[in-house]
Amino acid sequence: MHMEQQYFFWKLAYDLVSRHNFEIVHLHLQHGEVWLEKSSQGKTHIIRLLQKEFNWSNQVKADIDHINRQMEKNRRYFSGRKKEMHVIYIAQYPPVDDFTSPSTKLDFNFNIVFLSDDNKENGLDDLTRRLGLDEPLTINYKLPDAPMEYESTIEYMKQQLITYKEKQKQRMKDVFEYGKPQLTYILLMLNIIVFYFLESVGSTTSISTLIEYGAKYNPGIVKGEWWRLVSSMFLHIGVLHIAMNMLALFYLGSAVEQIYGSWRFFITYFLAGILGSGASFYFNDAVAAGASGAIFGLFGALLYFAWRYPSLFFRTMGWNLIILVGINIAFGIMVPQVDNSGHMGGLIGGFIAAQLVDLPKMSHRVYQGSALLLYATLLFSLLFSGIRSEQQVTAGEIQYLQELNEEERYEQVVSMTEEKEDIEGEWEEEWLFQRSFAYLRTGEEEQAFEDLVRAVEIDPGFAEAHYNLSLLYERRGDESNARFHKERAEELNPELQSEAPEEPASSQLNE
């Protein structure tokens, strides 16, 4: 009878792998133990087959407790949120005493099946139903008169399972070694070269330098400078910014390019970066730069990989990647300067772009067409909705004007601001103040006076505007108004008392 149980055990394992596409997680030939896994319809089925006789139910309970500890220890090894564990015992007889569920609390949904001689047929039907198989498990477990033939059949099935296991390993290796990270290294060099170039001509922390060399600047995009959606991906603000992004690009880029191949990586990277820039254009009116959107797109590509290869994903990068994405999102929420809209746009763009190009040796025309339509719709919606009236002032423009004044490029400030008339929006008083400062420096005091009067009407608490207005009143000989505005300025901002006489105050934008 031992030969019959052994044949049934290996035939069932072989049938689940070869006919029902279960993957081999663990194969122990000597102990007669096989672990299998398959994800289907949002649920992961884990099977543990064991050929062993249990005389008493407490022996079974001890074995179940051992499995539960193993499952808890290797929880992240298995894919999917919903996991169902099927423990299948193959033996000639069930335990002598009645078996009841273990008293200890189990961390997984356990389905315990005894495929003893008198329960094989019913047990297989029940297992077929629980596993949701399209075809029933039907195994002829009766031995004929030629046991030697079945010994050779058992050995054949063992060897076949070993072959399946080796093929799984090779498929895993092929998936992760499809391409070589050549473009990743090229992108790293390009970003570093651009960074050093900007440092040589100005400063990577200078708003004016960033804007002039292609940062995401909403007024420029509104005027038709669409190339900023791409060029901003190669600019970085300071050493820490580029160091963090290049480190992320090195690790994530290498992984994605090895999985997807170079041309798929290229398309995914740039489509993600462009959608990230589009999201930043719509949601964030400040000047922005960096490869973060494209890098978050690489996260999105790996999450798409998880969707197509759930078991392989959770056995390799798995929850570590998901936790890393969560940490980056949380960091972005906690740090105000981080362009979260660009990050989220890149993440979504990377996932959609990955579906558009799909993984090597995978192609689904309907999904790819849907991904193309979805991407185009999202990008068009962001750009079309993000276009504002040219008369509406943005925070990015104020940052730019402030820095131009600091660099004593007053004529450029006057030229830029005079292009817009009847300005409006939450930054109107700052706009007027920056223009008035440039007017003061170029000797156009009458225009400066008009802008400052309007600025304090809009915001009576604008200390610097009151201070500069007091200087102009003093020059006009209006001592009463000069005294009023100076006292008001010092009341609002005591530090203005230290300003040099006759020297206009400059405003610092609250970021």
UniProtKB/TrEMBL annotation:
Gene3D superfamilies, alphabetized: Rhomboid-like, Tetratricopeptide repeat domain
Record family assignment: Belongs to the peptidase S54 family.
Protein topology in the membrane: Multi-pass membrane protein
Subcellular location: Membrane
Name by which UniProt lists this protein: Rhomboid family peptidase. Serine peptidase. MEROPS family S54
Domain Peptidase S54 rhomboid: 223-355
UniProt source species: Salimicrobium flavidum
Transmembrane segments: 182-198, 233-253, 265-283, 289-307, 319-336, 366-387
Mapped TPR repeat ranges: 429-462, 463-496
Keyword Ribonucleoprotein part of the UniProt annotation: no
